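Hi R.,

Here's the chain you asked about this morning:
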Amino acid sequence: MRVSKTLFVIIVLAFPILLYIPVIRDSLSFSLNKYYFIITSVILGVLTLYKGIRRIPLKNFWDLIFCLLLLCLSLFSNFDRVTFPPIFFAILSILIIGFTLLAEGRPKTFFLWFSIVYLILSVVSLLNPSNFQNSGRFSGIGISASVFSCYLTAFFILYYFNSSSTKSRIVLFYALALLLIFYTQTRLNLLYFLALPFIFWLSKHKRFRWVYLIIFLFMLNAAYPIYKLLNKDSFITTMRYDDGKDPSFQLRYELFERVLLEYSELSGTQQLFGAGSERAREVILTNFKYDHMPHNDFVRILYDFGIIGAILFLSLFIKIGSRNEILFCLVTLYFLSFYHNMVFNLFIVSLIFLHTTNRNEES
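And the predicted structure, written out as tokens:
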């Protein structure tokens, strides 16, 4: 039985488009990410078992070891309850094995056409007033403006690297996507999207990709302190809040400080190996009486999995992002999405692992 990776490319790319269906978006959007990809990984696992185990490339073998270590770490201090992170790392392990064993197929065409379809649906959704929040933010196709911005950016990256179109068509796609992201008022994503041409240029420097990714991580983690120093009347603030006040950032910064403070009070062992899966969310729930989510997944993985787990986690994706141009761009987008509680978002992660296991994409 010869099963092509193209089948799973279609399954993965169909996920964000399903959110265009109102009944799915309104009733299942928050749980769809979890169950959709759990079912996908089960199917992939069954096909892998049917196909039989054979030696996987060394680069994918070490990815698998990293994921299994993270799985063990997430279970270590969490054996008394069921949470999603261990399931997430188990799914990553299945993706690595499964995508490696599947036949390559010809998925580039599907990356291209799904990107175009998603852009068209996004533009059409501008005509529906219900896709605008009371504050005027455009939420597009998805559960939030931030998630939509990340998905649209991911599809533009796929289009850019898989299209043989003229530059004018790529520029048109970029301009439309930029306009849509501007309407979402998701400021960090807007800055990232404006910087994408420069990020594409950086991705061409094969020897220095891992260095650029580390610098990018430091820059992202400096975002809160830098923004806090900005003048309240700066464009970054006033594009969403006319009075110059930014309640969204104020809450995010309070969440960030609280989790860091609680982390500093953990025992030495817990600081090294973590307090357990989803404990950072419990800190916020206890102190703010609502599950706001950390809105900074860097401190979230630090608190939950400790210094060891955070280094393993980030090193895995730095290692992966250093392999080729498209992976570099997808991994930078994934790191950016940490500010939108998307560390366990299986759509972007699946895109990364689809390209990680492509045998002909080392560049």
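Residues 5-221+307-356 form one domain.

Let me know if you need anything else.
M.
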